[in-house]
Amino acid sequence: MKRSFDEIWKIVERLRAPDGCPWDREQTNESIKYDLIEEAYEVLEAIDNEDWNALEEELGDVIFLAMLHTKIADDEGKFTPDDVIDTIVRKMIERHPHVFGSRKFESQDELLENWERSKGYGIFEKVNFSLPSLMLAQKVGNRASRVGFDWSNGEDVLKKIEEEVEELKRAENRDEIEEEIGDLLFSIVNFARHRGINAEEALRKTVKKFVDRFSYIEKRAKEMGKGVEEMSLQEMDSLWEDAKKERRDDKG
To answer: In which element (H, E) is residue 20 found?
Structure first.
C-alpha cells in the first residue's frame, strides 16, 4: 500500500504531540536548520553515486524535515501547512506566465530575465549568502550575466585569472593575500561558468579524487608494514603516481 503526504503530516503531528517524542517536541526551526542542509547534501551524494534507492530515501528525509519545520512554525502560530502550499503555488504560477498564461519568450535568456524581474527586487537582494562559497560565487556571476555585466567570452576570463595570479604574487601581507585569493577564486568560478561547469561540483570531484588517491597510499603503506606518517615525502609521491596510474588503468 502506497503512503501519502497526509500520512507524513500525521506522523509529524504525533511526534510533536504532548505525549509524542521528547526529542521532536523540543526542536525549534533554529535547532534543526543544519539537519536540512545535511540531508540536502546526502541527496547530492546519492545523485553523484547514481544510487536511486538512496536518492529515494534521502528525498524522503528532506520532505520529512520540511514538514517538521512547518509543524514547528504552525505550533508557534507563524504559518500553517496550507500557507506554505498556497505561497509556493502562487509563486510558481506568477513566475511561469509562459506555462500558466499567454506570455511567450523568444529565448531562455529572455525567460530568465523575466524570472528575475518577476521577483520584484534587485538581482542580488535575495541572494543567500549562507550558500557554500563556490556555489554563491557562481550564482552571483549568473545573475550579473543576465543583465549584461559579464565577460564576452571564456578567453577574457582566463586573462583575468592570469592577472589575479600576478596580483597574488605581489601581495605582501595576510589581508592582501586573502583578498587576492578571493579575487582569484571568483575569477576561476566565472571561467567555469563560461564553460558550463559547476565549480562546486568540479572542486568536490577533485577533493574526492585526492582522498581516493591518498587512501591508496595508506593501503600500500599498510601492506608495507608502516603508517603513512613513517614514510618520506618521496615515498608518498611515488605511491601517489602509482595511484594516478591505477586510476587511469581502471578507466581504460
So the answer is: none
